[in-house]
Every structure is written in structure tokens, then in C-alpha cells.
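We emphasize that the prediction below concerns an isolated chain of 441 residues; any contacts that depend on oligomerization or on bound cofactors are therefore not represented. The input was used exactly as deposited, without trimming of termini.
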Amino acid sequence: MVLIRAAMVLALALGSGARADEAGEDPVLYRYTGTPGARPSGVLVDGADGRIAALQQAVNLVLLACGFEGGIDADGMFGRQTQRAIRQVASCPPIAARLPAGSAARDGAVTHALWAVLLPGQPVPDARTRSRALLLAFEGTDITAGAVWNFCQNNRTLYDPGADDPTCYSNDPASYLTWGPNGATAGHGHEILSILARIEALDPGLLDADFGSEAPAVRRMLDLRIEFGDDSELQRYLCGIYVDFPRRSQWSAGFARLGQRTEVQALYRAVYDSATFDGGKMRTFVEAWRDAGLEPTEIDHAFFADRAAHTRVRNVEVRRLLRRVMAALPADPHPALVRRGFARAARVSNPAQRSARLGRDVTFYIDALEDRLTRAERHAWEARGGRRAEAVGLSDERPAPEVRVGPRDPFRATGLRPLTPAEAAQCPAPVLNPRRPPARS
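Result of the prediction step, given as a C-alpha cell string:
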């Protein structure tokens, strides 16, 4: 059966796309830009059901049909292994005949021409779609991989409240639980709760099917007392789940099952496109840039999306900082200079996350300003994976895609079933009051 599928893919390749002598430019969609070394760098992450994974599946079939031994993991991670496999595919005569002579596919990149040959029935991923391979690489939370607990996240071993030293370390004590490509959290903006409320409204049976006996406990979050600026009930409630390892594991697995459902993925995106969450933040950035006389580019759009997922975005503050940045730059500055200036001015409030934030920001200006980076910028960039906007085919020469902004999210916790004293007592004091992790020596 696999051989038949491989032969069919190769047959499709023979009949699809322009011949090499008919084709012109071949723009890059995805490219591995990492450097050799002990620390992995430049790896793109698009999720187990993303566009990169779909391409990897097609690559495996062509490798088989062309007589190459071995294959690659269709895991949505684009690194050296995938680059090497694409080089082999591009050297296979039926495929090579469909690629322009100077196509970057011959050096292991995914290009328009290669995509059209290998996946003729699927649309070429646009700039918005491709930029998510950077966001997910940074967030590290594939929606199909389950939720990640943030309590005691910096402890070197699995946290045990009964250990001789029960100290809990965390540099992000207010997230509680993180899930999916945008880094939805139970704490902070309570995006996970908004998503669960939409799932419950769509089909209450989904939580029962995916969480089993823990479904009522998951629903319970929606009925706690959560006031603006005070989600202490939610913190104590989830802490009680966290310290019970079997329950913690069941919750993580339940979110993994939820994330494999296409309808849940659509609801997840809808929450983040809303004016309440990243959609509103993106609009704030775009309007501020345009009011400053700047027309956002593809790389600007990806920069905005990454900042929207990882930082607070306030309209007045964005405009104030952008005015300061523009005043310090020459007339008609390169977009990368504006992004760099804004990144320097808009530091995150949590000191433990500043280097990580800087490393992410550098991704969106290193292609134009690599020879001007400071030692701190380069160190932070390398520590966060050494990725580049050009690796997903983004350019400052093309305008940003249109920002999608949905209606405001209506979710509010009901407060009908507040936390009980017995539930509150389940949370050990060290977990409720974590310490910042020790500084690295």
C-alpha cells in the first residue's frame, strides 16, 4: 500500500507544476537556517498537523519512490534531517525536472515550485501561516501535545511536595497551565477558560469524552470566583490538581485529545482572533504603525503576532514608545530598525523573561541588522534557538497580510461555585508562594 501511494505521488509530480525551463523565480516558503554546533538552532516547529508535517509525509513517499533509503519523522519540525531529505527529493529526476535551475529546493528549502509538485492539491501556505512556525517554536506548546503545568516549572526534578526540600521554583508563577500554539494560559488572560467555555457551548460531550472522570473538575474552573486582577481561587484550585500527579497527568492527556479535534482547533483560533485577545493586540500594533507613517510589512506582522502572544499590549503605551523610537531614528527608517528600537523600549516587566523576550525579538530584525547586533542580542538570540524571519520566507519588501479581528470574547466566570476550604487546603504553601529560580553561575 505504501509503495502504491509513493508511486501515485511520483505520478502526480510528473504531471504537476511547470517544467524547469518554463519557470521563473521560486520563492522560499520554509528554510533551515541553523548553524552546526552542539546546541540545536534554527529549527522551525509547525505542529503535528501543520503544513510542514504534511510536506514531510509527501517527502517520505517521494524518497521511497525514488529509491532512497530511510525517511524522516513527519513531526512538523524542520531541521537538518528535513533539509537533507528535501535535497534528496530535489535531486530525483522527475522532481528535478519540475524545479527551476536556481531553485533553493536543491539546497533543501521548501519553495513554491517544490510545494506545487509534492502537494498539488493543497494551497501554498501564506505569510500568516508560515510565521506560526516561529511562534510555535518559541511557545513550545503544540495543541495536540497536551497542556503544560507551570507550577514549579523550574525545578530540576519532578516536584514532590513531600520531599525533604519542598521548595518550588518558578519564573512564571501566574500562568498555572499553558496550552496550544499561542501559549494560552489558565492564569493571566484566562484564555484556556474562554476556549473551554466555547467548547462546552458547542458540544458538552467533548469534555466528557476527552477528560473522562475529570471532566466535572475541568468545568469547575468556569464557575469559580475570578475577579479582575484577582484569580487566587483559580490558582489554589489548579494547584490542588497539580500536586496530585495522576490527576495532573489526566488533565494534560485530556487537553491533548481535545487539541486533536479540528473543531477545537477552530475555536482556539477564534478566541485568539477576538478583539479581547491577540486580534485586538494585533490591531493596536497595526494602527499605531500606520498612524506613525509606517506601512507594516510581512516581518512586522510576524513580530506583532509574537509580541501579542507573549506580552501585554496597551494602545497608549505602544504609541508612546513608538513615538520615542521614531524620534531617535532617521527619516524613512528601515522596518528592522523600528522593530529593534521598539523591542529595546518595550521591555517585559518580569526580569526573568527579559533575555528570552529579547532573543525572540532579534529573530525579526537579525536578517537586516546582523552585523550591528550587540553581544547581549546575539547571546539572547542563540539561547532562544537562533531562528530567522527569512527562514519562513518573510520579507520587508512585501506588505503585511490583513489582520483578522473577531468580536470581543464574552466569557466571564460565573462565581456560582466558589472554592471550598477543603479545596484550598490541597495547595501546599511552597507551591502557592514559589521562589524565583537561582541565578545561573
